[in-house]
Amino acid sequence: MNSPAVRVLLLADTHGVLDPRIAELAQDCALAVHAGDVGASAVLETLAAAAGRLLAVRGNNDVPDKWLGPVADLLALPERIDVPLPGGTLVVEHGHRHSATRRHLRLRAAYPGARAVLYGHSHRLAQDVVAAPWILNPGAAGRARTGGGPSCLLLQAGTAAWRVSVWQFPALPRGARGLSERGTERPPIPRPRFGG
């Protein structure tokens, strides 16, 4: 029997500032998964309130000297998580322990039993679905090095199939604030690009 598909927000590299349009997408998801370089407790709080359930890992910049908020929130973040979903397991790590050269091959070799591997670190959107496991990078969901604007992925995980859609937004104008900074107007949400 097929269980219903689960809608999962996949994001990374907020570095203390969550784009409000991505937080809005989380409201329609059963789960948000952050692949590290979170940067602030406020990012975790916003995502948990929006999605209802949040899982996150620690990135190379998630260190006490840079963390905004209680250090206990930072210390609670693991380096890797395995997320059981309908149809398979999503493995999540930040990706900084694998060199950029052949990173996708290295991640596939490290997690051969996964349905997909989610990582961050590079701030570059990627959907490598030509081989198993899929390798997914949602780009940067904050302001730092967004490569054209903040982005994320939405995963529909069902027992029979998984589907990933890419969401990338125009960069917010200078002076606009992300959600962890309070008080920003929300531009309209664009239509997604589908892949995988």
Topology:
Layout: E1 6-11, H1 20-26, E2 31-34, H2 41-51, E3 54-56, H3 71-75, E4 80-85, E5 88-93, H4 103-110, E6 116-118, E7 125-128, E8 134-138, E9 151-157, E10 162-168, E11 193-195
Parallel strand pairs: 1-2, 2-3, 5-6, 6-8
Antiparallel strand pairs: 1-9, 4-5, 7-8, 9-10, 10-11
Write up this protein.
- Helix content is 16%, strand content 28%.
- Strand 1, helix 1 and strand 2 (31-34) form a beta-alpha-beta unit.
- By secondary structure, it is an alpha/beta fold.
- The radius of gyration is 16 Å and the shape is globular.
- It starts with 5 loop residues before the first strand and ends with a strand.
- The chain has a single domain (6-195), classed as Metallo-dependent phosphatases (Purple Acid Phosphatase, chain A, domain 2).
- GO terms for molecular function: hydrolase activity; metal ion binding.
- Residues 7-157 form the Calcineurin-like phosphoesterase domain.
- InterPro entries: Calcineurin-like_PHP_lpxH, Metallo-depent_PP-like, Phosphodiesterase_MJ0936/Vps29.
